Automatic annotation (TrEMBL):
Its main location: cytoplasm. This is Exodeoxyribonuclease 7 large subunit. It comes from Desulfurispirillum indicum (strain ATCC BAA-1389 / DSM 22839 / S5). One of its GO terms (cellular component) is cytoplasm. Residues 124-436 form the Exonuclease VII large subunit C-terminal domain. Signal peptide: none annotated. The gene is xseA.
Length: 469
């Protein structure tokens, strides 16, 4: 345990560091630390000064020459294990190693430098190939591990703008042998979707942990991507191949969260200020309009009152004039009505109507008498005509002994010249009908027969002669 220090004690700087140094050397006198070599420098005296790094943290290790006989060359990126004690030298915290063992490959940095030079020669890092990052991406493909802290850093940092973003998480392994294949597949799958932005995200780690992001496969997948790509891998001091190939490199996942949220926050701030200004302008305009409205209201009220007063006075004057005019008019109409009534009484048609009614009554009686007389005369004449018709009726003639002779076609025979001997006749009597045949024809009705020499015998009847009843 470190020595306790009373709060009432006051130390000088040198005394304080000496006490801390003593406590550290006693507490951590024989410890082992494993880490990645970030830098390894030698002195003229043959000592080695190693910097171990993990994420944002680093540790200075002093490895003196009397301990490192036969030690293999240490390179950047090697994974080493140091054993020793903790000390403070020149006010700097460090570890003094008595033994250093190399446990990892020291060629990672060389491979990184070689691939970097190769891709740089091909133009993978040229700005001409960099795609513009949209200022307000809506749909984002986030390639990372769902269980990693990097995802939570992004979501917590940009939590206030997540409601207006559509973030799709493509879960992949971010370290190990399967990471490269999964990341390349996720980049390829994102190309077929309608994304605005593609983001590679991973938190800090050792060089070995970050090695998948230094692969040529991922570099080529990023270079061929039709979508803009942002690399948010590791910490500020970590630099990977995908950082160089990507269209934009962001130091950390948290920094990407700020980068993603900043434009929306700026818009929100601008909207807030615009809303405040609109509110102020509306309030100011409302105040001015209210004052103008109140002034106009007073002016209108005063003008209406004046107009109403003038109108009331004019209305009273007109009402008085109208009363006088109506009174004179009514008086005139009453006088005229009285005059016309008297004149109408004098010109009343009642007596004339009574006289005309009397004349009409007389004319009606006279007309009825004349009509009755005319009717009687007509009835008498009708009786006489009926008697005459009865007397002249063919039946009456037949009744007196005459007959009617009809030819074969039903026509009445009138002239003997139209008949021929042997022609059949029909004789119509008062009672009965005779079928006759002409034997001879007498030319004259007075008894001469100069045309026909034949005369009928006593036993033959003469056609057309009247028959006795």
């Amino acid at each position: 345990m470190l020595p306790s220090v009373e709060s009432t004690s006051v130390y000088s700087v040198c005394a304080f560091l000496t006490r801390v140094r003593f406590g550290l050397k006693r507490e951590f006198r024989n410890i082992r630390v494993r880490g990645e070599v970030f830098a390894c420098n030698g002195s003229a005296a043959g000592h080695l000064y190693i910097t171990l790094k993990e994420g944002n943290e680093s540790l200075q290790v002093a490895y003196f020459r009397n301990h490192h006989h036969g030690l293999a060359k240490i390179s950047r990126g090697d994974l080493v294990e140091c054993q020793g004690y903790v000390d403070i030298y020149n006010s700097t915290f460090q570890m003094v190693a008595s033994r250093v063992e190399v446990q990892g490959d020291g060629r990672l940095f060389e491979a990184f430098a070689k691939l970097k030079a190769e891709l740089e020669k091909k133009g993978y890092f040229d700005k001409i190939h960099k795609k513009a990052i949209p200022a307000f991406p809506q749909r984002i493909a986030l390639i990372t591990s769902e269980s990693g802290a990097a995802l939570q850093d992004i979501l917590s940092t940009a939590s206030d703008v997540l409601y207006c973003l559509d973030i799709t998480i493509h879960h992949v392994s971010v370290q190990g042998q399967v990471a490269v294949g999964q990341i390349c597949e996720a980049i390829a799958a994102a190309q077929s979707a309608d994304y605005d932005l593609l983001v590679l995200c991973r938190g800090g780690g050792s060089a070995l942990d970050l090695q998948p992001f230094n692969s040529q496969e991922i570099a080529e997948a990023i270079f061929r991507s039709r979508l803009p790509v942002i690399s948010a891998v590791g910490h500020e001091t970590d630099l990977s191949i995908c950082d160089l190939v990507a269209d934009l490199r962001v130091e950390t996942p948290t920094a990407f969260g700020h980068l993603l949220a900043t434009p929306f926050r700026q818009i929100q701030e601008r909207l807030r200020r615009a809303q405040q200004r609109m509110t102020w302008l509306q309030q100011n305009q409302l105040t001015r309009n209210t004052a103008i409205l109140e002034r106009h209201e007073r002016d209108i009220t005063l003008a209406l009152r004046r107009t109403l007063d003038r109108s009331t006075f004019g209305l009273e004057s007109l009402s008085a004039k109208l009363d006088k005019i109506l009174e004179r008019r009514v008086t005139h109409l009453q006088q005229k009505t009285e005059y016309l009534g008297n004149h109408l009484h004098r010109l009343s048609p009642q007596s004339r109507v009574e006289h005309l009614e009397h004349q009409c009554s007389l004319l009606r009686h006279r007309l009825e008498n004349r009509m009755q007389a005319s009717l009687d005369i007509s009835q008498h004449r009708l009786g006489r005509c009926c008697d005459l018709l009865e007397t002249l009726s063919p039946r009456k003639v037949l009744q007196r002994g005459y007959s009617v002779l009809l030819q074969a076609d039903g026509t009445v025979a009138h002239n003997a010249r139209d008949l021929h001997p042997g022609e059949p006749l029909t004789g119509i009597l008062h009672r009965g009908t005779l079928k006759l045949t002409i034997t001879h024809i007498l030319e004259d009705t007075d008894g001469s027969n100069s045309h026909d020499q034949n005369r009928p015998g006593k036993s033959q009847k003469r056609a057309g002669a009247p028959q006795k009843k």
